[in-house]
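Worked example 2:
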Amino acid sequence: MTRILARLFLLLALTAAASCSKLSASRIWVKRPGSKKLEIVDSLTTLCAKHELDEEEMLAVSRGEQDDYKGWECGEMECDEDEEEDGEAAAEAEADGDKAVDAAEDEAPAAAAAPMPPTPKLGSKMIVGMLAPMAGTQLMKRFDQESPNFVLGLRGCFTACVAVHTLVDLLLAAKIAAANETGLVTEAPNPLSMLMGGGLGSAPKTTRQYDMAQLSSMRNSFRMGVVVVALLHWKFKWNQMLVYQGIQTIIELFYHPLVQVHLYGRPATDELSRPFGAKGGSPDMSALFKGLTQPDAAPAS
C-alpha cells in the first residue's frame, strides 16, 4: 500500500513538473486585474515570483480550471512548428526585400543621372560670336549714352568679365596641375615657323605641359585684348568696344577646349582631342609639310 501511494505521488509530481516546464517553455498570455490588454510572457514562474502570486493557482487558471486568480487571467498560446517556420521564412523574405530596396536606391542615382550634353560645335560658336555682340550693342542704344552712370555701368560690366576670365584662368591652372596627365602630345608644325627657318615640329610634350602652354597662350591673348580695348575706350571714347569685347570674352571662354575638358568634364576626343584644332576639318599640316620637303621617289627602272 505504501509503495502504491509513493508511486502515485511520484506520478503526480512528474505530471506537475511536465506541465510547469511546458508552460515555462511556451509563450503565455496574461491579463492584469482591471486591464483589457493582453501581455505576452515567456515564463509564468518569473511572473508569479515578481508579483507574489501562487503559481499553482495561476496554472489552474491557464488550464481553464478556474476563471481568474486575484483578478489575473492567463492562458497558453499555441504555436506549432509550421507557424514558426513560416514566421522565420517571412522574416527572411522581408530582410531580402529590404536589401533589394536598398540596392535599388543605391543604383537609382546612377540610372537617373542626366546624360552629359553634347560638346558645343564650332559652327554654333561662330553664330553666337556674331549674334551676341550685335544684340549687346543694340541693347546699349536703349540707354542714355550721355549719362555718366551709363559709362560707369559699361566699365563695371567689362571689369566683371575680366574678373570672371581671371578666376577661370586660376581654376584651370589648379585643375591641370591636379590632373597631372603624362600622356604625350605631338603638335603639328607651325607654318610661320617653317617660313622663318624653323623645324618641322617641336618635341612631344606631356598633356600637362601642353595644357599649361595653351593656358598661357589664352592668358596672353586675353591680356593683350584688354589693353587694346582699354586704350581705345580712354583715347577715342569707343564705348561699344567694351560691350563687344566683354561678350566675346565670355563666349571664347565657354567654348575653349580647356574649359570644356577640365571644368565641364567632357572627354578629350573628337573636336576636343589634343592637339586642339587638329580635328574637325583642319588639314594635317604635318603630313603636308613632310610631303613638300621630302624629294620625290625615283621612278622604278
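The chain has a mean pLDDT of 75. The beta strands are 28-31, 39-41, 73-76, 184-185, 205-206.
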